[in-house]
Amino acid sequence: MSLVKSAAFYFAVLLIVVFSVFPFYYAIITSFKTGTSLFQVNYLPTEFNFGNYVAVMKQGEFPRNILNSVIVATLTVALALFLAVTASYALARVRFRGRSLLLLTILAVSMFPQIAVLAGLFELIKFLGIYNTPWALIFSYTIFTLPFTVWVLTTFMRDLPIEIEEAAIVDGANPWVIITRVFLPLMWPALVTTGLLAFIGAWNEFLFALTFTISNDTRTVPVAIALLSGGTQHEIPWGSIMAASVIVTIPLVVLVLVFQRKIVSGLTAGGVKG
Q1: Residue 109 belongs to some domain of the structure
Q2: pLDDT, tens digit, for every residue of 7-39?
Q3: Do 29 and 5 have their domain in common?
Q4: What is the sign, positive or negative, of the torsion defined by CA atoms of 194, 195, 200, 201?
Q5: What is the rounded average pLDDT for all residues in the chain?
Q6: Max Cα distance, the chain (Å)
Q7: Residue 174 lies in a domain
Q8: Do residues 249 and 130 share a domain?
Q9: Looking at the structure, do residues 36 and 93 belong to the same domain, yes or no?
Q10: Which of 24, 115, 208, 233 is most enclosed, with most CB atoms within 10 A?
């Protein structure tokens, strides 16, 4: 019976892996195809032509778009984590009236779909004078990233032993020293997990990037890839689109592989009480 369960488990894992990895694998082998071979279904590589990658990197402002995505996603993560760490300390360690209600309100904000706040956020960005700048995306991404990061870090900080905070207070540490010198070293798994998820969200976001930027030198890669297409189906440069998709996906894959242990620790933190 145990053998059947093990076989069923590994078969389910195999299905999940194939379902998750196959689209990216097919995008890779398609990115090396040119001409009519793009429309031929082959599950094994038939040619290795880097012409699509060369064409993408030479087309318009695509390298600049990649840099824009890196800058916007990095600054969004830095700003969101800074605000989330300080907010989570107040929500997890400082007792004040309405703390639970405030935390639920923060969580409720994340439930609003982007399209519901698009018009209001557009007017606010125009009022601030940051339309068609990276700051418009950083501002909007941070708003939607903060509820998730605050909630996760607050839950993580609540599980930290109160004794280490009391010992720091006895030694004369102020709240800022407690956050930066005591809690931050212990919160690396949670910071890496929330930071990476926030980075992926900012890197892949399309609606705000399309709405709040209008020039090629300020657009991010999701919009740049969407604008590669044009005309009828046979006029769409599928090879270039696949090459661009592979280029912008590889950094995310590398980040996940590098920080996978921290991600697992952050996701499972607080799951076991002992």
Answers
A1: yes
A2: 888 888 888 888 888 888 888 888 888 777 777
A3: yes
A4: positive
A5: 82
A6: 73
A7: yes
A8: yes
A9: no
A10: 208
